[in-house]
C-alpha cells in the first residue's frame, strides 16, 4: 500500500494528519481455501457441495469476486482511518513536531 498523506487545520486551528490518496496491490498467494458453514441454512448437503465447488475452483472464483471484496475492505479501512484522523488532532497522536506544510 502506498499512502500519500497531508496535514490540515480544523475549524479550531488544530493540526490534523490526513490521507490525501492511496494505492494498493495484492495477490492471493499460492492457494485460497474457503471455510463456510451453514451456507444454505438447513441444507448441509447443498452447502457442502457449493463449498467443495468453491475450493476446487478457488482461482476462478477468487479472480472473479476477490477484487471487489478487497476493494470494499480497503475503502472501509481508509474511510475509517480518515474519520479517526479528522476526530483526533495530531498532537494527541504523536509527540513529534508536525512537519511544515
Give the number of DSSP strands: 2
Strands of the widest sheet, in order across it, are: 1-2
List the secondary-structure elements in sequence, H or E.
EEHHH
Average pLDDT level: 91
Describe how the helices and strands are arranged.
Blueprint: E1 2-9, E2 15-23, H1 44-56, H2 58-87, H3 90-93
Protein name: Takeout/JHBP like protein
Primary descriptors:
elongated; 2 strands; 101 residues; alpha+beta; two-stranded antiparallel sheet; 17% strand
Describe it.
The chain has 101 residues and is an alpha+beta fold. The chain has a single domain, classed as Super Roll (Bactericidal permeability-increasing protein, domain 1). The chain is 47% helix and 17% strand. The protein has helices spanning 44-56, 58-87, 90-93, and strands spanning 2-9, 15-23. A two-stranded antiparallel ribbon has the order 1-2. A hairpin with a 5-residue loop joins strand 1 and strand 2 (15-23). The longest helix has 30 residues, at 58-87. The protein is elongated. The protein starts with a strand and ends in an 8-residue tail after the last helix. The mean pLDDT is 91. It holds the Pfam family JHBP. It comes from Papilio xuthus (Asian swallowtail butterfly). InterPro entries: Haemolymph_juvenile_hormone-bd, To_sf.
Amino acid at each position: 500500500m502506498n499512502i500519500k498523506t497531508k496535514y490540515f487545520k480544523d475549524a479550531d486551528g488544530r493540526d490534523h494528519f490526513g490521507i490525501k490518496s492511496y494505492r494498493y496491490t495484492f495477490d492471493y498467494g499460492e492457494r485460497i481455501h474457503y471455510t463456510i458453514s451453514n451456507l444454505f441454512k438447513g441444507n448441509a448437503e447443498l452447502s457442502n457441495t457449493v463449498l467443495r465447488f468453491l475450493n476446487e475452483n478457488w482461482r476462478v472464483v477468487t479472480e472473479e469476486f476477490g477484487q471487489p471484496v478487497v476493494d470494499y475492505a480497503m475503502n472501509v479501512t481508509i474511510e475509517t482511518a480518515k474519520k479517526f484522523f479528522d476526530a483526533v488532532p495530531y498532537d494527541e497522536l504523536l509527540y513529534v513536531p508536525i512537519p511544515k506544510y
